[in-house]
Amino acid sequence: MPRPQLPGACDLTLGSLQSERWPSEFQQGHRVLDAASVWLREGSRDGKRTLDRKNMNSTYGGSLSARSLDKISDARFSSLDLPPSHISTAIEDPARKIVVASGALTSREMRRIAEEEAVPGTENLTAPLTVDERKLVDLLQSMAAKAAQRFPSMSDCFRGLDPDRDGKIDLSELRYFFRTCGQTDVVADGFWKLLDRNRSEFLDYDLLVSFMRPFLVAAYSGAKPRPPVKETVTENRAALIALVKEDFEELLLAVKQKARGSLKPRKAFRTIGLPGRDHIGLKETRAFFRCFNIDADEVDAFHEALAKLGGGEVTHRNFNDVMEDCFVREPDYGTFRIPQKKQRPRPPPTLDDPAGPEDEDAAFQMSSSRLPEETLFSFRKDVETKLLKEIREVMRDIGYKVRMSYKRPRDALRGLDLEKDGVIRREEMRDFFRGFNKSESFADRVFDLLDPEGSGKVDFAEFLAHFDEVLTPAHRQVERA
């Protein structure tokens, strides 16, 4: 429902602004819900997720620390049925090794790992990754890049995991998580076999979040999750680059001739760029040359020649140095923004001094600017603090359950205004809050807050306006003629 427009500049006062924003008879109650509506979108981000298990808490963000690494290692070694004296000589743990390779550990934790590696018989977590481990890292990086494009925050990535809040994840939930990140069920099954070595049919929610968190942090922040690959060949690098150019002169000449046409090299370079990864795979090299209609065995030989320069991997640095003569570099003008004038704070007009013709400019600036938002606990003097806290928790639950439990957001409000007369009655308000596990006494207190005159009716359109954060434009109420 569109809210009333502000009055003219001549009659503009602070009291008129507040009275026109909400009707006077519903002013306080609806202002409380309007301030609490921010928790509809913040409910899944703030605070801890309360699990059904006693004395067990889990967070959406997870925690990546040495303790989390020890838990991952204990869960892995528990499936081997080894005595404690033989745990140090067990096979290397790929989960811990991959987390260390992500580059998200602090310097203190890296020093602790270095001290553990100094003990004879312990696993080497900082050793170079194998081919299979590198493929797994590439998989996690591609999933994180897909999730960063699809979800606005990291908490939204894990929204489909553990819907029953028991702290455990089964195979079907993991498959759903992989599908949201652009992977198939076959890939999810292989990932499941890697982490579920003891075949318990469940994965711990905290450990999975801790395992995925460094890659998601790198994808959302744009930082690299691990240090770049060290080049083994450092001597005579310029001579080796020149030798590769000489061996594949015809291939580079074909790219140079076709790049002068309508095709922009920028589109070709998009095939080899992934956030947080410093090397280029064979499939990406083939896709790059396929943009220039070059698909032959010579491309594979070109990739192998560049891999010898980077210690078995094709780095972006070597690739760009070889291809730099094929393209005309475009100037980088950078980015800029138009500076905005800073609005100086102006004292609000008082009720005793109405705005006159000489203050029309100041009144117009106030009408075009937004009033400072009221927080939920700004009403502690007039409303019970306990009721304000309960309203905040209910808004959190509504923001979570509307997205997870209803096909259409408006279905959550279907029990209101059953007679289609634009009015909510007390029984309907009780049914609405009963769907979010709240008692009738709480519903009555909210109803009395919205109906201070005791008329027994609450305007449905005004109540619906507080849920604009979860209702899409197609599901909002339309004004009838």
How much beta, percentage-wise? Answer: under 5%
Give the total of beta strands.
8
Strand order, sheet with most strands: 1-2
Determine the mean pLDDT. Answer: 66
The residue ranges in which pLDDT falls below 50 over 5 or more consecutive positions are 1-26, 43-92, 225-234, 330-345, 363-373
Helices and strands: which structural class? Answer: mainly alpha
* Overall 3D shape: elongated
C-alpha end-to-end distance? 13 Å
| Rounded radius of gyration (Å) | 30 Å
Estimated helix fraction: 40-55%
Largest sheet: 2 strands, antiparallel
SS field, number of helical segments: 23
Structurally, how many domains make up the residues?
Answer: 3
Protein name: Dynein heavy chain domain-containing protein 1
InterPro entries: Centrin_CML-like, EF-hand-dom_pair, EF_Hand_1_Ca_BS, EF_hand_dom
Pfam family, one: EF-hand_5
Domain EF-hand: 149-184, 438-473
Secondary-structure blueprint:
Blueprint: H1 14-21, H2 27-36, H3 39-42, E1 49-50, E2 57-58, H4 66-77, H5 84-87, H6 94-101, H7 107-117, H8 131-150, H9 154-157, E3 168-169, H10 171-180, H11 185-195, E4 203-204, H12 205-221, H13 237-247, H14 249-259, H15 265-269, E5 279-280, H16 282-290, H17 297-309, E6 314-315, H18 316-323, H19 360-368, H20 385-405, E7 423-424, H21 426-434, H22 440-450, E8 458-459, H23 460-464
Antiparallel strand pairs: 1-2, 3-4, 5-6, 7-8
Helix pairs in contact: 2-22, 8-12, 10-11, 13-17, 21-22
